[in-house]
Amino acid sequence: MNLIITEESEGERLDTVLAGLVEDTSRTDIQNRVKSGHITVNGKTVKPNYKVKKDDRIELLERENVEADIVPENLNLDIVYEDDDVAVVNKDRGMVVHPAAGHASGTLVNGLMDQLDNLSGINGELRPGIVHRIDKDTSGLLMVAKNDVAHRHLVEQLVEKSVTRKYTALVHGVIPHNLGTIEAPIGRNPKERQDMAVVDEGKDAVTHFNVLERFDNFTLVECILETGRTHQIRVHMKYIGYPLAGDPKYGPRKTLDVGGQLLHAGVLGFTHPKTGERMEFKKELPKYFTDVLDEMRLSEK
């Protein structure tokens, strides 16, 4: 993937600029990739603290595919689509996307290693094939790269904001207007580093939403991501006063006891990295979500 530095980024550190531009990538990962020579500036290796200049050409080189030290597990994943380059998987609620501290097994990656024949190596040994993530207790669709060329193309689409990502969420409160856009930067909460929050020094974040159904004390909404920041929908909806129902981290103290936020990634669209065909996939709300809605509809009759 190639990026050209614009005037507004001139003078900033290379690792800071790329952490803000490349979706779902940490500054530490960027620093490691710069040090290993997988990121170059104008064809040359530099240090992570290199101050970028206007028109610098940044190239993110492909890493060699790695044989990840992850135990494949037969988790019977719901593979919605698969070809030689990409796959689309419907992640169950409660499943972590990739191995991390406290989650060495039972992750989406463990299942992918068992069910798919190839996965890209760009994100390293613990995140093979993972182009973007959704939270543990969020269900829904994810795109997976089966080789590095496909991975790079899909990341470019995320950077260009051409990937369609639509979520269904149940939020506290009754939203009076039918449409809205939340444009507020998201970063680490200075008071609680495990949480994200709207902060002045955060990364740009934009969420569009429209109301699908109103209840006495809740609203069902569709949220459309323009950017993909960590916990973006959960943070943005809390910011405007309508936190997600069931959310233990960002929801109110008294919320629905349903085992996590009611949030489902139901629509995913992207351009196929090889054929150029525009593809869109939809996955209906899971039963745990529809049960809550059905109960609300009955109680309001």
Low-confidence stretches: 64-68
Beta fraction of the residues?
25-35%
Radius of gyration: 20 Å
In whole angstroms, the N-to-C terminal distance is 54 Å
Largest sheet report: 9 strands, mixed
Pattern of helices and strands: EHHEEEEHEHEEEEEEHEEH
Helix share of residues?
10-25%
The computed structural class is alpha+beta
| Count, helices | 6
Q: Write down how many β-strands occur, each being a DSSP E stretch of 2 or more residues.
A: 14
Q: What's the mean pLDDT score?
A: 90
The backbone outline, from C-alpha atoms, is globular
Description of the molecule:
Its EC number is 5.4.99.-. It comes from Jeotgalicoccus nanhaiensis. Residues 12-76 form the RNA-binding S4 domain. Keywords: Isomerase, RNA-binding. This is Pseudouridine synthase. By secondary structure, the chain is of the alpha+beta class. The protein is built from six helices and 14 strands. The strands form three sheets. Strands 4, 5, 6, 7, 8, 11, 12, 13 and 14 form a nine-stranded mixed sheet that branches. Strand 13 and strand 14 form a beta hairpin. Helix 1 (14-21) crosses helix 2. The longest helix is centred in the C-terminal third of the chain and has 13 residues, at 287-299. The termini are far apart. Mean pLDDT is 90; it is low at 64-68.
Quick structural summary:
This protein has 6 helices and 14 strands.
